[in-house]
Write a structure and sequence with these properties.
Elements (H helix, E strand, L loop, with lengths): L2 H6 L4 H7 L6 H21 L8 H21 L2 H4 L3 H13 L10
Length: 107
């Protein structure tokens, strides 16, 4: 079986983390599993250098992307990272509601 074939058998965030050799804390995964997987997908999608890699090279690249995605949520949180569109939309709404303090002061 090839690396890609092995990936098809993975179902959970923990499956991916274990398979790709990424150390993790369960509490981080419990809160951020979908966000980690989405960010992992985003990093993979942006990686244009995987063409022609053998299984070992591809596994190393996947592992690095998953490690990076996991680490994003160790040091931050889903709302701050704006992983999903709902968070991006909320950030835009909050920016539209911003009122500078100077505009509230009498002139």
């Amino acid at each position: 079986m090839s690396f890609k074939d092995d990936l098809e058998d993975l179902e959970t965030a923990e499956d991916f983390l274990r398979f790709l050799g990424v150390s993790y804390e369960q509490r981080v995964v419990n809160v951020n599993r979908l966000h980690i997987l989405q960010r992992f997908h985003d990093y993979l999608s942006a990686d244009t250098g995987m063409e022609g890699l053998d299984d070992e090279g591809m596994a190393a690249r996947y592992s690095a992307h998953l490690q990076r995605a996991y680490q994003d949520f160790v040091v931050s949180n889903a709302i701050a990272e704006k992983t999903f569109k709902v968070h991006q939309d909320e950030a835009k709404r909050m920016a539209d509601r911003f009122v500078p303090l100077d505009s509230l002061l009498p002139t």
